[in-house]
Predict the structure.
Amino acid sequence: MIGMHAASREALERLLEALDKGLNESAETVGTGANTGSELFDLVDMLDTERSLRIALIDSAQPAEKRVALVKDLLSGKVSTSTEELVSAAVSQTWSNTRDFRAGLVQLGRRALLRSAEAQGQLARVEDELFQLARIVENEPQLELLLADRAASVDARRDLLAKVLYGKVTSTTEALALQAVGRLQQRPVEELDTLCNEVAGLTGREVARVRSAAKLSEQQQTLLEQKLETIYGRKIAVHSEVDSSLLGGAVIRVGDEVIDGSTAGKLQRLRRSLA
C-alpha cells in the first residue's frame, strides 16, 4: 500500500479484510485462494493493455451498479464466482486513480495466494524461498539485468525466471515471483525482497537479513531472533546467508537499520580511525 492515496488505501484495507473473511469461511481455502490469486493476476495483465477499461471500472461519475454490471459482462463465466464477487466489490469502492486500482488488485491476488499457502502450512517455506531467490538474483547481476530489461516482453522476462525456478519452489512462490517480474515497480531483487517482507508481515513479523561469515546453526538463529525481538520490540523473522568476505561475525539489516558486527566491518572502522 506504499505510495497509495488515502482513499485507495482505505478501499484496499476493506477488500483485504473481506477477502480474509471469505477465505476463512471457505471449505476450500487452498483451492479458492490459489484460484482467486491466479485469476486476479490474469485480470491485471489484461487491464495493463486496456486503458479505457481501467478508467471505466473506477469512473466515480458512474453509479457503482453500472461499474459492477461492467465487471459481470467482462468476467461472468470466465472466472470463479469468488473472483467475480471480489472484483465487483473492488469496483464499488472509491479509487484515486487507475494505478492504485491495479496495485490493489495485485495486493488482493498476493493475499489470496498466501492465504492458500498458509492453509497448506507452506507460508514459512514460501517466505524462505522468496528470500533465497532474491539472493540468487542479487548475486547474479546478469540475470537481474535480463529480468529488468524493459525492451524485452513481459512473457520473455517471465519465461526466463520460470526456467530458473522450475521444479525448485512451491507453486505459490513461482506465481508471486513471475507476477512481480512482469510488473516491475523497482529492481527485481527489491521486488522479491518486498514479497518476502509481505509474507512475514502476514504473521506480524519483520524480516532481518543476516549475512554471516559462517552458516548459522538453528540454535544461533533462534537466539538471534530473540535478541533482535528484544531490541526492536516486535517479532522478527531471521533469514541468513553466508558471506565469507566478512571474515568473521555478521551484518544484520532490519528495515533501513544496519548492525555491522563483522570482522571486516571492525577492520574498516579501525582503518578510518587511523587515517
Remarks:
- The mean pLDDT is 93.
- Residues 98-119 form the longest helix (22 residues).
- The chain is about 65% helix and 10% strand.
- The longest strand covers residues 205-212.
